[in-house]
Amino acid sequence: MSLVDYSSDEDVHTKNDQVSATGTGSLPSAALPEGSESQVANTNHPQARVHSQGDWLDLSSLGGTLHSLHNPFYWHRTAIAYIPVSLSEDQRSLVERIVARAREFEPSLRSLSRDGSYTSLHVSLTRPVILRIFQLEAFTKGLEMRASKRKQFRYSLGSFKTYQNYNKSQTFLALDVLGGKRDFNNLVSDSDAVLATFQLPQYYATPSFHVSIAWTDVETRSENLLRTLSDEFADELGLLSGLHAGCVECKAGNKMVRILLRG
């Protein structure tokens, strides 16, 4: 069973999903191998809209061209699948305190919350990929057919890491997923199978599931940041356990499909 919700809200689920990780040490870290230039999305800001160049994605930076607007068969959208993260008031307060402490080490860090709501937090299941308009429905239906058979599950967040986007222009402070990795891997297998039918880049072979909570585009180093956060918040991170994964969301342009997992 699935719920389809066509939303005009265009929260980010793009730039901070093309990343590499480091568990200790400095900001930033080395980047993961990037995907196909013609198929993996590229935006310029973590909170940019999915199609940030006007109403249609500008493919010039990806080595491609945008087809004529008179031929909608070839119009493109950036798509990504993810698990939305819903936090309680106490959990949001903890994340806010973590970000505030991190900014004492790295003043350029900016929270990924919107007015303290943290509604855009998520765990990615795919990279941002570019689909033609006529492929969108087939992609979402294929993902729905597979993911809707999966059961809802619980997961937890724990250790701190920093991640970078593919061109090392932005660094993200994140909380890694601990419990629930098997369930996330199952959903990645589902989305990879659908992406393969379109010959699109699949997710990383060994995904590092995480939730980004802050970002910076300034190249600065903070050797003790992760160690300090781990030491000071070790006794409180248990509050970020038992998080509920009840659906997969697939966003493409200004449309969002919500796929309910089995109860």
UniProtKB/TrEMBL annotation:
Protein's UniProt keywords contain Repeat: no
Source superkingdom: Eukaryota
InterPro entries per record: Usb1
One annotated Gene Ontology cellular component of this protein: nucleus
Gene3D superfamilies per the UniProt record, alphabetical: Cyclic phosphodiesterase
Record-annotated membrane-spanning stretches: none
Spans annotated as Disordered: 1-47
GO molecular-function terms, A-Z: 3'-5'-RNA exonuclease activity; lyase activity
Single Gene Ontology BP annotation: U6 snRNA 3'-end processing
Biased composition (Polar residues): 17-27, 36-46
Keywords, comma-separated and alphabetical: Hydrolase, Lyase, Nuclease, Nucleus
Record protein name field: U6 snRNA phosphodiesterase 1
Taxonomic lineage: Eukaryota, Fungi, Fungi incertae sedis, Chytridiomycota, Chytridiomycota incertae sedis
